[in-house]
Amino acid sequence: MYDGKVKVGGPEERIAVQIDLLERHYLVGRDIEIQYFLHQLIDGGQQGRILNLYGTGGVGKSYLIDEFRRLAVHVNAAFLLMDSRGFSHTPQDFCTQMLRMLGYPIEKLQQIAEPQALLELCHDILREKVANQKLVLAFDTFEDMGDMEHWLKEALLPQLHPEILIIIAGRFPLQGIWLSSPAWRHWIHRMPIGDLDYLSVKQYLERSGISQEPMIKQVWMKTRGHPLTLSLIVSTTMVQNIHGLELVDEIEVFEHIVSIWLQEVPDDNLRELVEAVAVLRHFNQELLSYVLDRQVKTDLFQRLVGLSFIRRVDRGWILHDLMRDAIRYQLRLRQPEHYDWLWKCCIKYYYSRMTNPSKRKTIAWEGVEWYYYIGDHVVRNFCFQKSTPYLMETLNPSNWAEAEQYLENRIINLKEVCLPLQNPDTGERFEYMISKEECFYPIKHIHLQELYELDPGIIKLMRDQQGAICGLTAIIPIHAGTLDYLLTHPPSSTYFQSLPDHKLKELRVPKEHIAGYFVKTIDVTDFEDVAIRTTAGLTFISLLISSGYVVTTAPPELSFLKEFHLSLGCEQVKNVAHYDYDINTPTPYYVLDTRGGKLQDYLNKMIASFGLVDHSKQQDDGMSMLSEREKEVVGLLENGYTNQEIAADLYITEVTVKKHLTAVFRKLNVRNRTQLVNSYLKKT
Fold first, then answer.
1. At residue 667, does pLDDT exceed 70?
2. Separation of alpha carbons 518 and 666, rounded Å
3. What is the DSSP string of 350-410?
4. What is the Cα–Cα distance from 72 to 285, expressed in whole angstroms?
5. CA-to-CA distance for 120 and 436, rounded, in angstroms?
């Protein structure tokens, strides 16, 4: 067994020491895990003596185990690593491998044939070992143990000395047989290993000799903090001249990462689902069945969401960002028509949800998903890149000084900004420049006292995870109490003064009935920070779909902002512009009006831009075969009603509803509800 000790003078040992020093130098972002390991190793205690490391392939589990080995050696503890790839998965081969690593003589080992005798010998030697020094027993690549997992739980681990610290590392957390017992739950400490945060990535890059802030942010955006991708990107980039540092063509890097992850996906049925969900931002069984135009069976769906690179979130599941981008890029190259079809199915799905009267309560969330699919690459770069929770709080006396300091710091730190964006579908890169003067425009007309007196809820501050103010929004509700201000103050005055009297009258509603919003500013400290920029973008699009009437303005020199607004369906106001950012440049306004029946018109206009049409205006092939009552049932079903809700709405029994559906299935030649809804939408 290699115990980490080296003899002075030997060249191999000196290399081993140097490798360990370098490995430790580049280990970042795992302080919490290391502190827990040291606590268990040195102080002991029964609870949490099995450290269960788990995470996606390439996330750094084995790298962290190496650090645990170094730490163990430092306190003179023995460290035994059993990698499941190093032996056949039978109790006999497992014990044989362990005894070899413990230094048991080979000639004696060959004389033992009985598996039980080998197991008892392992326990004897481990007990002797732990009597003289601390011992760590680590299992890596645990997901490949297969049937051996049960044997380890029942035969090996329960007989070990309680002072042995156990590490079980794999792509998946211990579950099932491990969690059914309170006793085992007492012993297991779950240790999920995730991607690195921005500060850890920055630290790693600086230790690698990359200190240029734009380069650090570009690498962060490309790797999403995935350790193996980060390492490969840096190693391939560093072969270039450091003074002219640019990212190399990373396609091969991402293909390598994908190949590692897809080792979990052995069969074609499951791989087809992985490719489909790579096109989706969030997914669930219903959405996946819809876009594939067939019912995805529950057992197959459970296998899908059990993959290590898929994560559960509030409203379904998501694929790891890198995995999604890489597979989607490959799918678009290999099967462009299929890719386009899947994308349009997503648009149709959210179109049907947003036109469903019974789903109005969730329209804000549905709208966010809708904008992901109808928006161009600028929208996806600004609103869907790196989601990080930021706290939004209303301006009040307790945070007033911080708000003033935020504005002061923004003015002091004005600088030219370069935004490196990438089309996630094509891989094409764009660079947008924002001048120092243009960075000032968002806060030029922000006067805290003035806006606070107008309405205390107008100004909101954005806090990062460290509690610092990193953004500010000023969104003015339009009603009788604010309309006079909007008519007389920059930059809103020119637009509102251009409205005819009857339009202004529509907007002069009581304060409790807001007519819409004017977005005076959505500002952030650092436009180059992807996470903060994403939060700002989501703030805007969430307002768009939930508010009915939104007016905003953006400097014309920033062409990407025009693309951003038009892609979302906003209309540029004709023949109206202001000069409030500077005295020379006419600045346009953008408006989205979805009040009343205009929402349907807006949705129809957006799907028409993708070659899709409003299903209510199409001829219904096959639907003519249905009775009027059957058509009513299908219509309610398409709107998401359950059988019980259909029965209540039509004043019939659930049994009658089922009879109608059976007749509909037969007439339209479909097998189930999912096929019926999909077929109905496509035909109509």
1. yes
2. 53
3. HHHHHT-GGGGGGHHHHHHHHHHHHS-HHHHHHHSS-----EEEE--TTTHHHHHHHHHHH
4. 45
5. 73
pLDDT band at 6, cuts 50/70/90? Answer: very low
Whether the CB-CB separation of 189 and 51 falls below 8 Å is answered with: yes
Do residues 517 and 546 make contact, with C-beta atoms less than 8 angstroms apart?
A: no
Task: For Cα atoms 48, 51, 54, give the angle at the middle one, nearest 5 degrees.
Answer: 135
Tokens of 484: 């006079």
Helix runs in 212-320, H state only:
213-223, 227-237, 251-261, 268-279, 285-292, 298-305
One-letter identity of residue 575: N
Residue 623's pLDDT band (cuts 50, 70, 90) = low
Helix 285-292 vs helix 336-354: crossing angle, to nearest 10? 130
Q: What are phi and psi of 264, to 5 degrees?
A: -80, -10
Does residue 244 surpass a pLDDT of 80? no
Return all residues near 467 (Cβ < 8 A) that are at least 6 apart: none
Task: Report whether 524 contacts 531 (CB < 8 A).
Answer: no
Crossing angle between the packed helical segments 227-237 and 198-207, to the nearest 10 degrees: 30
- What pLDDT is stored for residue 388 in this prediction? 67
374 compared with 144, residue with greater pLDDT: 374
Distance, in Å, from the CA atom of 77 to the CA atom of 73, rounded to the nearest integer, reads 5
User: What three-state secondary structure class fits 494?
Assistant: helix
Q: From start to end of 437-544, where are the E strands? A: 459-463, 469-478, 516-524
Among positive and negative, which fits the CA dihedral 410, 415, 416, 421? Answer: negative
> 346-398, pLDDT tens digit by residue?
999 999 888 876 655 556 778 888 999 999 888 988 888 766 668 899 999 99
Q: What is the pLDDT of residue 243?
A: 44
Close Cβ partners of 199 (under 8 Å, ≥ 6 residues apart) = 29
The string of pLDDT tens digits covering residues 77-114 is: 999 999 888 888 888 989 988 898 888 888 888 888 78
Rounded-to-integer distance, Cα 284 and Cα 290, Å: 10
Q: What angle do CA 358, 362, 367 make, to 5 degrees?
A: 115
Gap between the Cα atoms of 482 and 504, Å rounded: 12
Tokens of 244: 């002219």
Q: Is the dihedral of CA 26, 32, 35, 37 positive or negative?
A: negative
Tell me how far apart the alpha carbons of residues 430 and 421 are, in angstroms, rounded to a whole number. Answer: 5
Q: What is the C-alpha separation between 414 and 437, in angstroms, rounded?
A: 8
End-to-end CA distance of the chain: 70
Can you tell me which residue has the tokens 């190399």? 248
Determine if residue 135 is left, alpha or beta; phi over 0 gives left, psi from -120 to 50 gives alpha, anything else beta.
beta
Angle between helices 251-261 and 227-237 (to 10 degrees): 150
Those residues whose C-beta lies under 8 Å from the C-beta of residue 244, and which sit 6 or more positions away, are none
Calculated CA dihedral for residues 386, 390, 395, 398, nearest 10 degrees = -150
Q: How many Cα atoms sit within 13 Å of 282 on the Cβ side?
A: 20
> Can you give the pTM of this predicted structure?
0.72
Residue 343 tokens, joined: 């994308």
Give the burial class of 391: count Cβ atoms within 10 A of its Cβ; 0-12 exposed, 13-18 middle, 19 or more buried.
exposed
Whether 504 and 484 have beta carbons less than 8 Å apart is answered as no
Cα angle for residues 407, 412, 415 (degrees, 5° grid): 105
Structure tokens at 616: 């209510």
Backbone region of residue 39 per phi and psi (left: phi > 0; alpha: psi in -120 to 50; beta: other values): alpha
Taking residue 149's Cβ as centre, other Cβ atoms within 10 Å add up to 21
